[in-house]
Amino acid sequence: MDSRRCLYNAQIMATEVFQDVTVTDVYDQAAGIAREFDKLIHNYGNDAVTELMPKVIRALEQLESLASRFEKDNEEIAQLRSTVEKLESEKAGKAQERAKFEQELEVIEDNWQSEVKELLGVVSKLQDENKRLRESLQNEKHEVEEKVSAKYRESEEQEIKVLTKLKETVDKQREDLRSVKREFTQKTVDCEALQAQLEQIAKVNGDLRRKNNTHKKQARVLLDEKAELEIALRDKDVQVEKVKVMIDEQEKFEEQRAAVRAAIAEQRKSEDHPEEDEQSAQDGVATETPTVAAETGTEDGPRPENDSSSDTASTPTSPGLQLEGKMIIDLKDPNRPRFTLQELRQVLMERNELKTRLIEVEDELNHYRPRESGDEGDEDEDERSLYSGEEMLVYGPINREPDEKIHGNKDSGIRKFFSFLFGDGPSPPRSTRVMKRSNSAVSPK
Length: 445
Hints:
Structural class: mainly alpha
Order of helices and strands: HHHHHHHHHH
InterPro entries: DZIP_RILPL, RH1, RH2, RILP_dimer
Keywords: Coiled coil, Protein transport, Transport
Domain RH2: 336-417
Largest sheet: none
Helix content: over 70%
Oligomer: single chain
Region (Disordered): 263-331, 366-385, 423-445
Coiled coil: 60-232
Strand content: under 5%
Number of helices: 10
C-alpha cells in the first residue's frame, strides 16, 4: 500500500513542471522527505531506510547546489538584461544625436558656401582697389622721394652744425673732466695722508690711554705706599721720641757720673783718709746707678734689649763714649735696621719699576686675552665712565704677539703623568710664579 502511494506521488511530481527552484524549496522538500522517513522508520524500522537515506541525502545536496547555481544564473541573467536595455537606450539616444549632428552639418555647409561666395566677391573688389592704390602709390612715391631728399639735405646740414657744436662741448667737458680728475687724485692723496695721520693719532691715543691707566694704577699703588710709609713714619717718630727721652736720661746719668768722678778725685786728693774715701766713692756709685735705672724703668716702662745694650755701653768700663746724635742698636734684635737710607731708596725704586712693568704686562695680557661676557660689561662701563661725551676712536692694526707670551707654557703629558705617579700637587700657574719671583726680588734679605 505504501509502495503504491510512493509511486503515485512520484508520478505526480514527474508530471509537474518546476520553473523556478530555490534553495528554500529544496529545504522544504527535504523536510517533507524527513517526515516520510520518520514514518517509514516508525512503521518498518531502521533497516528499511539505511540504504535509501544516503542516496536521498546525496540527491538533495546535488539539488541544493543546482538550485544555488540556478539562483546565481538568474541574477546574472537579470543583470545582463538590464545592461542590454541600457545599451539599447544609449544606442537609440546616440542615433538621435547623430541625426541632429548631420542636420547641423548640412546647415553649416550651406552657410559656409554662402559665406565663401560673399568672400570671393569681396576679394575681387579688394584686388581691383589694390591695383588702383598701387598705381596711385607709385605716383605719390616719386613726389615723396623728392620731398624726402630735400628734407634729408636740410637735415644733414642741420646735423653737421649740431655735431660741430657737440664736438666743441665734448672737448670742453673733456678738459673739465681732466681737471676734475686731477683734483680728485689730489684729494685722494690728501685723504690717504689724513687717514694715515688719523691711524697714527689713534695708535698714540691708545698708547696714551694705556699709559694713563698704568699711571692711574701706579698712582693708586703709590698712594697706598704713601699711607703705609706715613704710618711707618709715625711709628718711627714715636720711637725717636722714646730714644730722645732715653738719650736725655743717659746724659743726666753721665752728668751724675762725672760729678761722682769729680768727688772721687777730690777725695783722692785728700791725704787724711784715702782708703775710706775710695770705699765711700764706690758705694756711692753703686747706689746711684740702680736709682737711675729704676727711674728710667718707671718712666718709660719695660726697657727693651737695645736699652740694656746702651747701659752696658755706658758702664764705667767704657769711659769717653759720645752718644750725642747716635743710635743704639741691639745686634740680637730681629727688627733692627739693616739698610742705609740710600739702599732703601734704591730698593723702593726697583720695586716701583717692577710693579710698573708688572702692571704693563697685565694690561697687555688683558688686552690680548679672550674676554668673557661679564668682563666685557665691566670694561665697557669703565670706558663709558672714563670717556663719557667723547667719540670712540678706531685703532689701527697691532702686531701679533707670540703664542708663548699670550698662552704661556702648558705642562706636557709626561709631566702630568709623573706628577700623578709621585703624588705631586698641581704646579702653580704662571702668573703666581711671576708674582713670587718679583716679590722675592723686591723683599730685602
